[in-house]
């Protein structure tokens, strides 16, 4: 009797393991189509995001493609120190921060305001039409968008300068004046992303309980009071998460648009970290130095994201994790 009980007890772990394994197989078979769909983005991130992280090692060596990683000389933090001591460090970092500051002040709140206004439109056809028109620019290629803005701002044929000359003023070469670039970039980015970013906030607005609005109407609340005390608190979590995502990429801007727009005349305000990495890594073939700059950019973004998430969890009780 004792031997049978001991055998039964000893078999329990194996039996549980086999039972869990069978359950896992059933779950995998049940969710096989969802897993197949999920496998595509997973493979993308593994192949193009995580595997290339191995290349970070070349930032600590004088890398030459013909020698490879094993044959290149190890130099430690030399390239990081060179970047910190170079004249480009302050210029690229400040320009990147300034452009992101403009985005946070203008481009970030605009979709929220647009979503709040669009949410008050009661005509469903008009609402859908406005929403469709607003997010169409998102699907336009960045090359086309930059081309449109360059034509609009052309000193000879651009509509902006035609208005200026029509007022009796001298035409302005906007893309050759460093002081105008941050405004031009921000306006272009806001126009392109406004409708698409607003979709996220419009989706968040649908989760707010309608009964809250009905209760405030009975209490005599105005529309502004409803927005202040119900609508905005109802989408606060979404706003915080979007802000944290933006904060994590604060040292990263739209590389393609800046590369297409800028020129040596406006490097003082248009040259950012990503374009500097492009010039050093692709144009000058200084792969190790460019990698060091890019690693610096990623590390700072990660640190800011962690700090912002902790502050968000502390004061708003919501965050990315």
Explained architecture:
This protein is globular. 73% of the residues lie in helices and 1% in strands. The protein is built from 17 helices and two strands. With 321 residues, the chain is mainly alpha-helical.
Key traits:
321 residues; mainly alpha; two-stranded antiparallel sheet
Class inferred from helices and paired strands = mainly alpha
Q: In DSSP terms, counting alpha (H) and pi (I) runs of 4 or more, how many helices?
A: 17
β-sheet strand percentage: under 5%
Radius of gyration: 27 Å
User: Could you tell me how far the N terminus lies from the C terminus, measured between alpha carbons in angstroms?
Assistant: 53 Å
The total strand number stands at 2
Could you give a short account of the major beta sheet? 2 strands, antiparallel
Q: What is the string of helix and strand elements?
A: HHEHEHHHHHHHHHHHHHH
Shape descriptor reads globular
Query: Which stretches are low in confidence, meaning pLDDT under 50 for 5 or more residues running?
Result: 5-11
Share of residues in helices: over 70%
Round the mean pLDDT to the nearest integer and report it.
85
């Amino acid at each position: 009797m004792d031997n049978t009980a001991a055998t039964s007890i000893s078999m329990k772990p194996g039996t549980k393991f086999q039972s869990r394994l069978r359950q896992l197989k059933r779950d995998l078979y049940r969710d096989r189509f969802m897993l197949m769909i999920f496998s595509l983005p997973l493979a993308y991130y593994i192949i193009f995001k995580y595997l290339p992280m191995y290349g970070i090692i070349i930032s600590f060596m004088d890398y030459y493609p013909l020698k490879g990683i094993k044959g290149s000389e190890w130099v430690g933090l030399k390239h990081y120190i060179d970047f910190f001591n170079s004249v480009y460090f302050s210029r690229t970092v400040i320009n990147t921060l300034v452009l992101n500051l403009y985005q946070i002040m203008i481009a970030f709140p605009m979709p929220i305001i647009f979503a709040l206004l669009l949410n008050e439109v009661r005509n469903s056809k008009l609402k859908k039409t406005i929403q469709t028109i607003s997010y169409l620019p998102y699907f336009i290629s960045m090359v086309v968008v930059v081309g449109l803005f360059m034509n609009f701002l052309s000193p000879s044929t651009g509509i902006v300068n035609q208005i200026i000359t029509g007022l009796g003023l001298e035409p302005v070469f906007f893309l050759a004046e460093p002081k105008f670039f941050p405004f031009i970039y921000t306006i272009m980015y806001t126009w392109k992303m406004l409708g698409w970013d607003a979709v996220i906030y419009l989706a968040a607005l649908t989760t707010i309980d309608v009964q809250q609005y009905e209760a405030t109407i009975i209490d005599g609340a105005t529309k502004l009071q409803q927005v202040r005390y119900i609508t905005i608190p109802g989408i606060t979590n979404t706003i915080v998460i979007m802000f944290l995502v933006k904060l994590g990429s604060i040292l990263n801007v739209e590389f393609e648009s800046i590369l297409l727009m800028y020129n040596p005349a406006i490097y003082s305000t248009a040259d950012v970290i990503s374009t500097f990495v492009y010039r050093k890594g692709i144009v000058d073939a200084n792969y190790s130095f460019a990698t060091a700059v890019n690693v610096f950019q990623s590390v700072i973004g990660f640190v800011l994201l962690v700090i912002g998430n902790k502050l968000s969890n502390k004061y708003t009780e919501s965050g990315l994790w």
